């Protein structure tokens, strides 16, 4: 039988078997080990050469081997790392998918690792693969890239077009990403984004999510005087800024975590979002904290609170000298507040809303400083691309995946959904206890093997169903 005839008779099962063999034979681990070894710490100002090398020496050649053309673009914000835009075009009449990943990692924290061979060596201990970037995000975009390779090897073509975007600054807030996507909108034109980041609901629960909660930090500060004053001589005569600020915070969010500012609360949860979350439970894996079921908005399930509602948290609070307390009334207090919010929440006037609320409650002298905002996004769970990925994942695993209308955390998904105008479907390949951003970051080998097969199935099915998948009109 000729090679062409063998390819013509190849099946989906052949592709899934090839994905499993790629894992079992060590091919995937070898690729990931090379990538982990590149110290792409975007929080380190000296990381520029490593960030460029990750794209130029590793990802670019890997894409070229699969028939991609690619370009490396300097960041429009010169202090930050570059971008890679790759393209494999098989036909004008075929759908196009954008795949995204980020090659940068947070600082290695080398001296704090207790397992594996440190942050820059992929080291297997049992089912855990240790190394910085294994979970966030080198391992995840490597899975998606390897799955494309399996389909090409078995079928000889994808049956759709692919754009591949890799940035190197996500861990510093994705500087330049919006600008590069605006500038390269034509080169990045696609019909949908299918990408991977973040954790599954649980290690044994394949998951997809359709957007993210937004996030914004703001600072509350109160300075009442210069210098501290003896509490015996002045206690009862001077306002204590620590006490005042604590009560100011309590006017924003109560002792059960319920937001008390009407303008900071979201609209009612849509019916199809609530239906998608029915029966979904967070926590329960080894290493997970115990969920406080009576914390947050009453009359919501814990899952609705983290996925479909807003939260207001105190990240840090300081007054006096916490390390060496003295018997004196401090002159000032400061708190860093943190808000996660869902689609439909207007945070454009956050500073004014908080100031007006505090003033109405007698705390008009508290200063409010608002930081950068990352927008909230959520694709309609009834979107055809969502149904396609759901069905493909179920076809591979034999069980329906968990569908989260949005992730509880945040990603720069608004760049894809708003600037590029794409439906966005994320299939995460990590799990909640992966120690992402911490020492001993790791992937789970069984999850990697399953994820390789899941994504190979998604790419295979995309080629099979190319004719019926929704297309976007070029603007």
Strand order of the largest sheet: 1-2-6-3-7-18
Mean pLDDT: 96
Measured by DSSP, the beta-strand proportion falls in 15-25%
Low-confidence stretches: none
Give the C-level CATH assignment of the largest domain.
Answer: Alpha Beta
The number of helical runs is 14
CATH fold field value of the largest domain: Aminopeptidase
- CATH superfamily membership of the largest domain, which one? Zn peptidases
Strand elements, count? 19
Q: How many structural domains can be distinguished in the coordinates? A: 2
Helical residue percent band: 25-40%
The end-to-end span amounts to: 46 Å
Q: What global shape is seen?
A: globular
What's the architecture of the largest domain, going by CATH? 3-Layer(aba) Sandwich
**Which class do the helix and strand fractions yield?**
alpha+beta
Radius of gyration: 24 Å
Largest sheet: 6 strands, mixed
Describe the structure.
The protein contains 14 helices and 19 strands. A hairpin with a 2-residue loop joins β4 and β5. The relative contact order is 0.18. It starts with a helix and ends in an 11-residue tail after the last helix. The chain has 2 domains: 298 residues, Zn peptidases (Aminopeptidase, 3-Layer(aba) Sandwich), CATH 3.40.630.10; 118 residues, Alpha-Beta Plaits (2-Layer Sandwich), CATH 3.30.70.360. The longest helix is centred in the last third of the chain and has 20 residues. Helices cover 32% and strands 19% of the residues. With 475 residues, the protein is of the alpha+beta class. It is globular. A 6-stranded mixed beta sheet has the order 1-2-6-3-7-18, with helices on both faces. A 4-stranded antiparallel beta sheet has the order 12-14-10-15, with helices on one face. Strands 4-5-19 form a 3-stranded antiparallel beta sheet. α2 runs antiparallel to α14.
